[in-house]
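Hello Y.,

Per our agreement to keep a running log of every chain we model this quarter, I'm adding this entry. I've kept the format consistent with earlier entries: sequence first, then predicted structure.
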Amino acid sequence: YQKYAYLLTEQVVDLDPLDVDTVRARTEAYLQAGTEIEKLTCTVLKYPFFELHCDEIIHTLSQQAYHLAFTCLSTVSVSVHDRSQAVLTEWQETHERILSNPDDEEELARLKQFMADINTLKTKPLMATTRHIHTQIDMLADFSFEVESDVVERAFSSFA
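Predicted structure for the entry above:
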């Protein structure tokens, strides 16, 4: 049981939700620890003068491992929620700017310059961010972690 004692003090505070590989590895490690703990068959340790019943520690350690995994996935879910909204908003603002009617020649020149630079300034970065959001959603799905349907809809409507 000492092998899993770290679970009692560990916290998920330094997790970067954008680093999908690290989140995946940490989540898998926590879930594996929880599963290994639950598989421990020794629920009673017998010593010469006493017995140590381990059911409660097994339960506590496994639940803590699963809680840490859930915290990792929740952090990514919040990131997906916030980023999908920001990307969709930026796509909509870009679309509105393109369709706007300039009031004078100066605005027209700025709009033409914006449209000339749109691929590098907006399209490519937003497409990369949207793809990364999809990667995050795929990772959450791999762990059967539910993502709100409106978040998924926003992430996919960003491509529309």
